[in-house]
Amino acid sequence: MNLLLTTPLRLVPRFMSPNDFPMVWGPNPPVTLPLLAAMAGPSWKVRIFDAIASELDIKEFGRWVAEADAIGITCSASSLALNAEMTLRLVRRLRPDVPVFMGGHHPAFYAPEWLARGATVIVHGEGEHALAELLDRVENKRGFHDVKGISFLADGQVVRTPERDFLADLDSLPFPRWDLMDMSVYGLFTRRPGLTFSIETSRGCSNNCSFCLVSSMWKSQQRYQSIPRAISDMKRLAAMGATQLGFSGDGFGNPPDYHLELSREMVKAGIDMDWISFMRVDSILKEPRLPEAMARSGCKAVFIGYETPRQDLLKGWKKGPDGGADASTYPEVYRLLDKAGILVFG
Q1: Tens digit of pLDDT for each residue in 95-151?
Q2: Which of 158, 188, 242, 252 is the most buried (most CB within 10 A)?
């Protein structure tokens, strides 16, 4: 059986800059699709298409849709929603009856709307085991009622099943199926010869910023790979030709002690890669030694949230672990990163 996993097609060149933003540092490959592919059973042949980085041949995509027994579309943010909807419409025009599973932050919070637009199932929260179970139901021609953490339509009504518990151990997840992707289309701004990969060493965020869906998606929880597992995965990526790496978690440095140790262990293990990450201001304030350790382990740039210099707005947004982020610290945070030789995208 055939499974097609895709990011939204670039049918609208500009809509809140979804196609330009990733190009600032890359493009960097999404870890979501190859990780989901690794969860498919042996009877499933998986094809991955990352439309954000790859050139679109609409006829070829149509052939993939025609061959698919199930299709998965990920939509991680509202900036991708228009293209995601157009992708879904195209799939439905070509294949009215093929099961289409959608996941990511946007579908998870707007399940009824996406179901009304043609999705078969919306996955809330983590998708790895949910997808494996959904594919089993498709293969065996069974319903979805016993799959936790999803929404679907039954007799025109939205059915939302009981929530699925978060994975207790990220180490239990398989190594992503990078072999199914054309890695030659990716690269960081450092332009170092070699391949660029992504790694997810943490998932979620322990904060409660009101402007961000991450805390709601993950219930203000953050979980981590063990450092030995993370180092093992990096070594596997290096053996595949990786020289550049993107950390796909929501905040490198949160908590500082874990990431300080990870950076030091990367140096000890001889991990030789240029890497980038997202980061939080308060992580550096809690552990000023972090930028230097990151730089030694290969960090070339971070994307860090300088939301506003207005303290009243930060307080109103509940920015920070205790809602008390301090805008006056921005210059010091920048100085520490700049001193370490890390490029700052604020």
Answers
A1: 999 999 999 999 999 999 999 999 999 999 899 999 999 999 999 999 999 999 999
A2: 252
Distance CA 188, CA 19 (A): 15
Q: Distance between CA 280 and CA 283 in Å, rounded?
A: 6
Query: pLDDT value at position 21?
Result: 54
- Structure token pair of residue 220: 């203000």
Q: Do 137 and 117 touch, CB atoms closer than 8 A?
A: no
170 three-state secondary structure: helix
| Secondary structure (H, E, C), 44-108 | CEEEEECCCCCCCCHHHHHHHHHHCCEEEEECCCHHHHHHHHHHHHHHHHHCCCCCEEEECHHHH
Q: Which residues pair with 153 in a beta bridge?
A: 158
DSSP 115: H
Which letter, b or e, does each residue of 44-67 get, where b requires 16 or more Cβ atoms within 10 Å of its Cβ? bebbbbbbbbbeeeeeebeebbee
Contact (Cβ atoms closer than 8 angstroms) between residue 186 and residue 27: yes
For the entire predicted model, the pTM comes to: 0.92
Q: Is 237 helix (H, G, I), strand (E, B) or coil?
A: helix
pLDDT over 60 (residue 23) = no
| DSSP classification of residue 20 | T
What φ, ψ does residue 300 adopt, rounded to 5°? Answer: -110, -25
Angle at 94 between CA 92 and CA 95, to 5 degrees: 65
Rounded (10°) CA dihedral 184, 190, 192, 197:
-50
Q: How many helices (H) and strands (E) does the chain have?
A: 13, 14
Give the list of residues 6+ apart from residue 143 with CB closer than 8 angstroms, or none. Answer: 137
pLDDT tens-digit readout, 24-56: 667 889 999 999 999 998 999 999 999 888 888
**Under a CB-based contact definition with an 8 Å cutoff, are residues 206 and 254 in contact?**
yes
Q: Would you call the peptide bond into 27 cis, given omega within 30 degrees of 0 as the criterion?
A: yes
Distance of CA 81 to the CA centre of its chain: 15
